[in-house]
Amino acid sequence: MKTSPSRPFPAIEKQMAALGQRLREARLRRGISTLLFAERMNVSRDTLNRLEKGDPSIAMGTYVRALRVLGVEKDIDKVAKDDELGRKLQDLKMPVARKPRGRLAPSKPAGSENGTEDNGHQEAE
Q1: Local structure of residue 78 (DSSP, 8 states)
Q2: d(Cα 51, Cα 65) in Å, to the nearest integer?
Q3: What one-character-per-residue DSSP string does 58-76 give?
Q4: What is the tens place of the pLDDT at every residue in 85-108?
Q5: What is the rounded CA–CA span in Å between residue 66 and residue 97?
Q6: Cβ distance 69 to 30 under 8 Å?
Q7: 79 SS3 class
């Protein structure tokens, strides 16, 4: 029994539609017809039409081919490149450096170097 893919969240649908629109605008700026663009991408015009509408069922490879035909395939290298959240989560899992065991050197009383008493107030002269 074949099941249909689940519908993406509305925010993702908006992002996909915006991506499709940007690809369409890039094609139009270059003066490439839908027929020629579809041929260069090796897809049908129907698939190209769905891609430019942001259809989430279109394979990622098809989007990458569209980027390549448009000459902006390096843009795909920017996706998830700076994983700030992932690095923060990874840092939280790192062990905390422990202080070395052993005798501690005797410390000077607070304020003995700058004329302050142990309570942090300056001495009256």
Answers
A1: G
A2: 11
A3: S-HHHHHHHHHHHT-GGGG
A4: 998 999 888 887 777 777 666 666
A5: 49
A6: no
A7: coil
Identify the burial level of 22 via C-beta atoms within 10 angstroms of its C-beta, where 0-12 means exposed, 13-18 middle and 19 or more buried: middle
State both tokens at 15.
Answer: 């992002």
Token pair, residue 19, equals: 């991506």
As given in the structure block, the two tokens for residue 103 are: 């005798």
- Express each pLDDT in 30-45 by its tens digit: 999 999 999 999 999 9
Instruction: Tell me which residue has tokens 């920017």.
Output: 78
Sole residue written with tokens 């422990």? 98
This prediction has a pTM of 0.65
**β strands within the chain, DSSP E:** none
Count Cβ atoms within 10 A of the Cβ of residue 62 and give its class: 0-12 exposed, 13-18 middle, 19 or more buried: middle
Q: Which amino acid is at 8?
A: P
What is the C-alpha to C-alpha distance for residues 106 and 98, in angstroms, rounded to an integer? 20
Q: Is residue 66 within 8 Å of 23, Cβ to Cβ?
A: yes
* Residue 94 neighbours by CB distance under 10 Å: 7
